[in-house]
Design a protein that fits this description.
alpha+beta, Chloramphenicol Acetyltransferase
């Protein structure tokens, strides 16, 4: 009888331990709300992002720009133009394309141990969709006027929203711009759109006190840009020179018209 009681006690103890284990397991294992299959566009994006971050050594440089002159130019152009309104994105696309003309090594890709520099400057615009991200392309952006860039951007974004983009609309970009400024993001470091060598991130416009050349404090609209590059193709000095040139164009924007 004593042995029976001991066995019963052992069984109860084991049961108690198992119950405690289950309780602990439930505590540390989060309850699942929903399981979403990775498929379609989202799966393609995931694969491309993984390939980019796995194969390309990324590094990012940041610069802050006073856009007071750029704002004045935008306002002036939008009073004069009868077509699509010029946006900051249009101005940045044009300025970036001109900067890529100056520093064509950024308009490139690495393939089979060779850096291939493209003659055409085709700027991709990272665009959010309901089920993922897509990059419609403004071809030969350096050769287009601001009005032409605006027309093409509006058309591409509208058709992206309606899921009416063709394969040709999202193929052939040589450099990409991504803008999260409208979501009040100050700056960020994006993943390069594989197989390109660089991507430009655009942050929010914020008013900040700035000390001018005469030592006076003024409040100016400022914007941060981030340049993420493939370190196999480019070094920090070249990236810095590109950003300096881009900043000069955006702060003295008469070259854009």
């Amino acid at each position: 009888a004593k042995e029976v009681k001991m066995k019963e006690a052992e069984i109860k103890e084991k049961e108690k331990i198992e119950i405690e284990r289950e309780i602990i397991k439930k505590r540390i294992t989060p309850e699942i709300l929903e399981t979403i299959p990775l498929k379609g566009i989202r799966k393609t994006i995931a694969e491309r992002m993984y390939k980019s971050i796995s194969e390309i050594p990324h590094f990012t440089l940041y610069v802050e720009i006073n856009i007071s002159n750029l704002k004045s130019l935008k306002d002036k152009l939008n009073k004069e133009t009868k077509g699509k309104k010029i946006s900051y994105t249009d101005l940045i696309v044009k300025a970036t394309a001109l900067s890529l003309e100056k520093y064509p090594i950024l308009n490139s890709t690495l393939k089979d141990d060779k850096v291939i520099i493209f003659k055409d400057i085709n700027v991709g615009l990272a665009t959010s969709m309901e089920d993922g991200l897509i990059v419609p392309v403004i071809f030969n952006a350096n050769k287009l006027s601001l009005e032409e860039i605006a027309d093409k951007r509006v058309d591409l974004v509208n058709r992206a929203g309606e899921n009416k983009l063709e394969l040709d609309d999202v193929s052939g970009s040589t450099f990409t711009i991504t803008n999260l400024g409208m979501f009040e993001i100050d700056y960020f470091s994006p993943i390069i759109n594989f197989p390109e060598a660089g991507i430009l991130s655009v942050g929010a416009i914020t008013k900040k006190p700035i000390v001018d050349k005469e030592g006076k404090i003024t409040v100016e609209p400022m914007m941060k840009l981030g340049l993420t590059l493939d370190h196999r193709v480019l070094d920090g000095v070249t990236g810095a020179k590109f950003l300096q040139y881009l900043r000069k164009i955006l702060q003295e924007p008469n070259k854009l018209v």
